[in-house]
Structures are given as C-alpha cells and as structure tokens.
Amino acid sequence: MQGEPEHRLKTSQAHLRYPSLNITIYSDTLFPSLKSIRGYTCAQLFTDGYCFVHIYPLKRKGDAHHALLQFMQDVGIRKGLLTDCAPKEMRGEWGQVVKKYHIKAKVMEPASPWQNRAQAEIREVKKLA
C-alpha cells in the first residue's frame, strides 16, 4: 500500500462561506407594468415581513436564482425561506442553490397569498412606484 495516492472526498460546506441569519425570509417575484430603461422586466423581493426589504431587478423571471445568490452575498444565508408554489422557486437552478447552501425552504399552500409576507411588501412597493 505504500506509494499509492490517497483519495479524498471534498466536503460540501458552501453554506459556511456566508453569515447565517436566524430569521425566516419571504420571497416573491414582482412584475411591474412597465419595462425598465435597462431592460428589466421583473424583480425578486426578499423581506422578513416587518421592515427589512431587498429588491433585485431581473431581465426574466428565470434569473431569480441570481438574485438569491446576490442576497446571500449582500446579507447572508437565512435560516428559513418561504416562497409560493412557483415552479422556478421550487426546482431548477433556484432549487440547486437552496440545496447547495442548505437553506430550509418552505412552500406556502396554493391559493393562499396571505401566508407569504412578500405579497404585502410587493403591494407597498407598487404603491410607492
């Protein structure tokens, strides 16, 4: 056995790169009535449901995982993440990011938008705009 190289497995600890938030974050996609000058058609909103809100503009709704990664770099990884039943927020690249960073994702019940506090923040943002 002497002289044989050792085989080591890499550990997946990507979630330790960013600070951990001990709160639940609510997220949803905001669709304004107009396209921005820079070509943004929607935005991803993150909130704690009280006074904390972060919005990231997107060119298309399929880019929501980029907003999630940017939020993690700007603020940190949250303890829990509550989204609606949108396919882009359950599977695909969004789901891969959630799995890689060990985020406890929860999905609200269909046809019950009052469970997602991001809906109220979207209404407020649209009022202000």
Describe the protein.
About 20% of the residues are buried. The chain is α/β, with parallel strands linked by helices. The mean pLDDT is about 80. It has three helices and five strands.
Mean of the pLDDT scores? Answer: 82
The span between the termini is 69 Å
Helix content: 10-25%
Number of helices: 3
Radius of gyration, CA atoms, in whole angstroms: 18 Å
Supply the key terms:
3 helices, 26% strand, 129 residues, alpha/beta, 5-stranded mixed β-sheet, elongated
Helices and strands in order, then pairings?
Elements: E1 20-30, E2 42-47, E3 53-58, H1 64-74, E4 77-83, H2 92-100, E5 104-107, H3 118-128
Parallel strand pairs: 1-4, 4-5
Antiparallel strand pairs: 1-2, 2-3
Short structural summary:
Helices cover 24% and strands 26% of the residues. With 129 residues, it is α/β, with parallel strands linked by helices.
